[in-house]
Fold this sequence. Notes:
about 5% strand, 3-stranded antiparallel sheet, 4 domains, about 170 residues, 3 strands
Amino acid sequence: MPPLSATAARSATAAADAATLAEWDRTHVWPAFTQMAEYEPLLIERGEGAALFDTDGNRYLDGSASMWCNVHGHHHPRLDRAAREQLDRVAHTTNLGLSNPVTVRLAKRLTEIAPEGLEKVFFSDDGATAIEVALKMAFQFWRQTTACNMPAAEGHHAGRGLPPLAGAGGRRL
Length: 173
């Protein structure tokens, strides 16, 4: 049988039913922090407020706020409108040597409400990266101002990256 064209393959993928999607999930997706020996796909297709709905229409309480990243609920009208407006301009720009008006305005507002002397904002995409950057900034500060060993919090976990794990004081990774 000849291979599907890219358009036909996209069409077939978009039309897949819940059972097919579950099989593809087991075959092609490696979920984070999941024991795969007993894994059964739970495919969430939409959210409303604090509720999530799977492909079979079952309703679930999003008790972790989608890993603490969705404190305002799903499908919030104001947030959805802001996201659509941003997508009409540009979906994403990096902060690697670039900036954008939204980033600049938010940074300005954050410095206005931050304690005195905090005039710069570093944006991060997750907590682990934020911890890693904070450790690197602290290390650079101490290296430039005095000789100092990096402090470690014995037995604490502060993220997934190498510096947060090293900062946790453990001898092995």
